[in-house]
Fold these 3 entries.
Entry 1:
Amino acid sequence: MNEVPTYDSMILPTLEALHTLGGSGTNKEIYEQVVQLLNIPDDILEISHGNTSQSEVEYRLAWSRTYLKQYGLLENSSRGVWSLVSTPINLNDMDVKEIVRTVQDTYKSTDISPKTVNHITTLETLEEEELSWHQQIHKKLLSLEPSAFERLTQRLLRESGFIQVQVTGKSGDGGIDGVGIARINGFLSFHVLFQCKRYQGSVSASQIRDFRGAMQGRTDKGLFITTGRFTKDAIKEATRDGAPPIDLIDGEQLVQRLKELGLGVKITMIESIEVDLDWFTNI
């Protein structure tokens, strides 16, 4: 595959991925399965979508999920888990053109958007706010000074339950930006060394190896946080058998975590009132 797959070409693979995952999965899990199913090479996966933390593949895959949701085949929770509305599902019965046409025709008959209806203008109206706050945060993260980004990471870890989080940031420290202690259920704890980097592109496997080398003899656990993405080889290297494991947090996960913790993001709940006129009739 030498081109970025289109959103419609990933609709059926998305369904197949969820079926493989047992009927539900996170964005990351679905992405990894679809990449494997379509055998998308690294050079395609590393193509960014504009000036955002998303790759072009991730962006188009988001549209695939949205079409399936609007067609009634998928649903998603507030915690970002997508699931099949019904299982099992027969992929041979699915007509991608019919799915796309039905969803677009639905919005042609509504007043959701005065723009010409197509796969961007119809559904972008529904997710415009979501994409907007993602892009705003990502742009701001990239503009932070390295020391400010380290302090943000420190706050993020503290809010996530880490204790004794310290930013070191010493030059010549092999890329170690800080240390902390992760607590599990208030009983177990282990030391974690972390590295946080403001990257626009992808973190490579060699950078993961360098980080692990700096961890050698100091801890059994590492955490690598970036505003960018990780290559497939970097992800494999992070969990390589026989080597100290390194947890990875990419730009998309970072933004979502900031939202969950309310760090720089305020969520306003809008009250919805529905009048049941039949109730009065039955008094």
Note: The domain at 8-139 is CATH 1.10.10 (Arc Repressor Mutant, subunit A).
Entry 2:
Amino acid sequence: MGLWVTKQLRDISDIVYVGQIESFKHVATTDDWIEIGAGVSVDRAYAELVKVYPEFEETHQRFASLPIRNAGTLGGNVANGSPIGDSMPGLIALNARVVLQSVDGLREMALENLYIAYQKKDMRDNEFVAAIHVPTRAGQRAKLQFRAYKLSKRFDSDISAVYAAFSFIAAGDASREPRLCFGGMAATPKRAAHAEAILADAQWHEATAQAAMIALGKDISRSSTCARAATTASIPPRVCCIASG
């Protein structure tokens, strides 16, 4: 919102601060889900996630800066829906769900389905993000393999140039239910459907990995990356191509 004022010269008018609503600040872990209220700080949310997914530790340390991690919320990052937001690719790779609330009650959807276009979300006028549900590693997911990577110019206090997150369930030497999600490569956080199709139920060896990397070229192209960057940052596309390359 600060950038809306300083860069776009927008008049924000009245602001309602919801940061002290106690019902939004809960964290509950069951056998199946980690439920994180929309008002839980980024720092606390990742501290809880790391207990189940230690692979998130680097993201926890590199998300914005310490003051922002304590003041900002995971729900706010999800609701903002920036294509370069740090939380969405990792949560989508884990098949997280978002809970929306309105005067009509609650509805829940896969987090990836919340984002339908650049800064456009599948939310009704009177809806807000109430919570995020992240699956645990129970049952079949006990063998889930997960990795998350952030590329940026600085270690922390910096937006992602690219954020990539990958998960699959190891079934012997085969990969089940692969989910590959990227931030910063399209107008929304984007799953790599072609690469996922190569990996699904495939034997895990070098040839499979090489085929999946080739398939990524169908999922994410340099031109689409440049177009997204030019739209969001107003930078000439030829500069974006150099930066993203």
Note: The two ends are 30 Å apart (CA to CA).
Entry 3:
Amino acid sequence: MTADETLMEFSQRIARLPRYPVAGGYALPDDVAMLASNETPFGPVPQALEAVQRATMTAHRYPDPSNARLRAALSDRTGVPSSRIAIGNGSCDVLLAAGEALLEPGAELVHAWPSFSVYPHLAAASGATAITVPLDAEHGHDLDAMAGEVTVATRLVIVCNPNNPTSTALPAAQVAAFVADLPRHVVVILDEAYCEFNVLDDPDTTIDLLDNHPNLVLLRTFSKVYGLAGLRVGYGLCGSEGMVQALDQVRQPFFCNVAAQAAAAEALRHQDTVAQRVERTVMARVEVEEGLRALGLDPARSQANFAWFDVDRDPERAAQLEPEVVVGLRDRGVLVRAGTALGRDGALRVTYGTEAENTRFLDALRAVL
């Protein structure tokens, strides 16, 4: 840092904001198994790529700021009126906008921990108070404990289902009861980025809650099962139009680019492909979990496209081993996420990849351990 740079004065919230734990490996060779970021190993459907190519012919024009075509496609798919659908530059964009629209000094945010790494940014950026509730012994949300933390100051409660990074999920009936019991002034974001992989319930089950709960938002993404992570497009299904209007009001214009809008609208047309990908992911889930148990490990009960486990059954030893295991896997061409960066020392989060990648991971882990 130069002498001139030390004279710059940043806002106090810069010191409060945590840095997002970015996964490494983007500059590594192509033969590395990228199992660190919960991406799908399946690319976009060909028709989505064709839609992108057509859309980029008008790249000299700004994208539709209302995202009308994509919202209409989502409305047809979900039954939620397009006026109650918020689009974003990934689901994180919608999430951060909700924090800006709802939170301020004196307000409170309640969420479980460990959970999605972006949640701490909401309170830090706004000056609100974050109330974090530990997960239960099965790495899942303790909804009773979360409800007990709600006060008159609570503006926002977030439930990540399935939970990232622990892969666990709650039945929709439990979530519905939780939402129904909360005060109406509390906005509930049900973060469902991985809902398509959850076989406890039909992914569309929670959509029925929106008509009775104007304070509910279902947060979803095209980055996972649809294979569009590189284009950055997500959405929120909202219980009220007022929420959509507030989210749009705090964001920059043109927050979803023309290629992303076109690809997402086309991807929705291929639900058979989604079902096939979910089936293959569940098969990979069984394969990896069986492999981990054969190594004496105890993975959480995953309902997502990734596994979560401690690298040793003894917590103290697991915390000591974790850095060595991460490096050992990396040296063998397998990238995973260290639990230390995600809220739990001694744990690993590993995305399910292709059959070859999963085998490579298990073989590498066996060698390291």
Note: DSSP finds twelve helices and twelve strands in the chain.
